[in-house]
Design brief:
Elements lengths: L3 E5 L3 H13 L3 E5 L2 H6 L1 H4 L3 E5 L7 H9 L9 E5 L4 H10 L3 E4 L4 H25 L2 H12 L3 H11 L4 H7 L4 H15 L4 H16 L3
Parallel strand pairs: 1-2, 1-3, 3-4, 4-5
Length: 214
Amino acid sequence: MKKTILLIDDDINLLNVIASYLISEGFIVHITTYGYNALQNLEVIQPDLIITDIMMPHIDGYELIKKIRSQKNWHRIPVIFLTAKGMTQDRILGYNSGCNAYLTKPFYPEELISIINNIFKQLEFWKHNIRNNIPKTEHKKNNSIFKSFTNKEYKVLLLVARGYTNKEIASQLNSSVRNIEKYVSRLLNKTKTRNRTELAKLTLLNSLSKLEGE
């Protein structure tokens, strides 16, 4: 089955060039020049992967990925940053924002294809391990737990899974450290996990089970 890629860049000429190359490689491609358009159409497009520029009008790539990672249905979508910003600090900021790969312009199209294929191979590897090691009944139990979370609880959970400290989560969500501690304690109780490591693992299992369509 062909993979669907959402391509976002305010340079329409570059968009068309990359889109043509991706289509020639067998992908289904949707393009847009605005991040807000992408967010509004995620449910319709249902991309398997997003490729986005960082420097864009109205909403930049960092803000775009922040909004994507905060959503229950879309936080698991792989994101590749394509950007002219190639400084080390820019790359660190990109990875800390949750991107899966960072490619600096100009680049070889073959390198982009290699990155895309590698991301999909990793996802297939994880899904294979989930299928072989975790019973379906366990998947269903985990999914029912996650559906009971409030939006704020889910945001805290995603940041915990990404390795953020309570202080960093408080800063991200404009909350107090004390409140975040309460949320983390509540999440541990709801999931019956003993620590943040187990909580992060459970989040990964839930994300991968969704990739399998359960």
